[in-house]
Structures are given as C-alpha cells and as structure tokens.
Amino acid sequence: MGKWGVITLLALAVVLAAGAFAFVRLSQIEPQVLLAPSEVKTEIVGTSVEGRAITAYSFGQGETVLLFVGGIHGGYEWNSTLLAYQFIDYLKANPKVIPPNLTIAVIPSANPDGLHVVTGAEGRFAAADIPAQTTTVPGRFNANNVDLNRNFDCKWKPESMWRGEVVSAGSAAFSEPEARAIRYFVWNHDPSAVVFWHSQSNAVYASECEEGILPSTRAVMNAYATASGYPAVDSFDAYEITGDAEGWLASIHIPAITVELKTHEDVEWERNLAGVTALFNLYKK
Ligand SMILES: [Zn+2]
C-alpha cells in the first residue's frame, strides 16, 4: 500500500468514527425533541390596507385546530393584542401543555393599522409604549375607517352600530383585507373553535347568525366563562350588531366566542390562561 492508500484509509476511518459518534448522540435525544413541538410555525394570512402583515402563529401538530384572535379592534383594544402575544410566549415556553391532538393558532394583531394609530410601533409593543391620555377610539377602525367586526358575512349591512353611533361596515361583506385574512385562515385550517379577545365589557359571549346558538358554542362559552370568571352571556343585546366575525363563523357551523376583558389596559393573564386551559381540556382526546 502506497502513501496515498494509507491516507485514504485514515480519512475513511475518521469519517466512519464521526458518523458513529453522531448516530449515538442523535439516538440519545428523545423523539419529542426531534419533533420539536415547541417550534412555532408562522404564516402570513393577509395584509392590511396599509400593507402591514397579518400573521398566524401555530403550535403543536394535532388535527384539531383552535384559533385565538386578538386586536380586531386595533389600538382601541390594544390589551387584547398584548394578551395574544403573552399567550404565544407561554406556548413557546410550555409546549407540553398542548394536548397531542390539538394545534393552537394565534393571530395576535388582526387590525395592525388601527393598532399602529395608537401604539406608533410596528410589530410587538409594550403597555409602556402607549402614550398617556391618548384617545384610542380612532384606533378601533382600519385604515378605511371600517369597523372590521361589522365586515363579516352574517346579516351584513353597509352601516352598523357601535354603542350609540353609526359605524362603517365596509362596501360589502369581506370588502376589507383584514376580514379576508381571518376568512383565509378559517378556510385553510378549518378550526374547531375560535376565540376573539376584545375589551372591555367583562363577559364571554356566545355567537349566532340565523340558526341560534350552536350547542358546541354554548359548551365553549361555558367552559371559558367558568374557568376565567368572566360572566357567560348568550347574546350581546345592548345594541344591534351586524356583520360580526363570530356570527359569520356560526353561519358556517364553527363555534366562536367573544371574550371581553374587564379593562382596556390589563391582559388579565391568569383568568385567560384558565379559560384557554379549559378549552384545551374540552377538545383534548
Ligand atoms: Zn372590540
């Protein structure tokens, strides 16, 4: 054997040893680590009127999808977006809380243009970023001055109400890109239940369109309300609402609830963690 033959054999031995070492190391790693359940999948599901991305973050690999949406009323209800971001952080840090049959999806900022009006920030923000004594009402609407929670296809009308005032509901159901972003996610992922976080009516509302409250919606409402301590309310009757997202979901037989935080400033974390945990338990196999 010549000099080059020895070198080739030595090189081969080194490669084989390295391969064997890597095999032993990998086989010592637990399978769930290799599957990386804590890994977050991000998907841009739409773009706002002003071009800001609307992103869904998903955790887990189960067939049953639960969707949580914050911030459809933008900067007027900025704490609902902070709650959704805290939920994302919690799922990243605690992947084992997700039952194996579930996928948890979170759209933290469904109205990023309205949020930007109040926070002045792009992407994540902190409560401290909100200027003191700012009027947050303009941040409720999207950049076309549409109340997005009046732009969905359930009893849609061009104008709707918010408290005592007339608000624009868009030029047609789903005229607004932010509403279409939620529809895109729903059409593509077929969630088994949807929770919308709002503030500040301190209640959990069921939803309906033309067929009354779905039994599954009532189960979701009661589970969340009992665990969180927000009172369960069958229907919002302070004033007539048309074109709300939850009603549209009811019309396509997907249970949806509205969770109204008690304040406009706090994320009310412990209560909402109890609420989402109750839904995990309701849907786990
Ligand atoms: Zn709201």
TrEMBL record:
Signal peptide: none annotated. GO terms for cellular component: extracellular space. One of its GO terms (molecular function) is metallocarboxypeptidase activity. GO terms for biological process: proteolysis. Its cofactor is Zn(2+). Residues 19-283 form the Peptidase M14 domain. Keywords: Hydrolase, Metalloprotease, Protease, Zinc. The active site is at residue 260. It comes from the Bacteria. PANTHER family: PROTEASE FAMILY M14 CARBOXYPEPTIDASE A,B, SLL0236 PROTEIN. Belongs to the peptidase M14 family. This is Peptidase M14 domain-containing protein.
